[in-house]
Hints:
Elements: H1 8-42, H2 45-62, H3 70-73, H4 87-106
Amino acid sequence: MGKSSRSSAIKKNNQALKKKVFGPVETARIERQNAKLLALAQAPKELVMEDNKADQEDSTSTEKEPETSTKDTTMDVDEDGKPKRSKREIARMQEARKARAVSKLRGSRSRPRNQKEFPAHKLKKKVHKR
């Protein structure tokens, strides 16, 4: 009896495990993380940056490719990469934007959802009161 997860025996066992087993493991993990962070913080930043630059220079020197002429590969595309919109479409969008702004100012004229009354379904049988 008393073997559910709410029983005091199970609770005491879990508390003991937390103290004896999982507690030291967790503190050791936190200490390792702190040591790693301190090592990163104390490392000279210039040396770290120089190492990255040296790696980048090595990779760029090994990957030299012949340059293609830009005149042959350019395409007749806008610099933005966006398609141009017609005057008609721009006017329609501006009109819609104005309508949204006006409706925000007026607020909603419809009833809240919890107060709406929906019509009865056509196929539902009508109950006549006598």
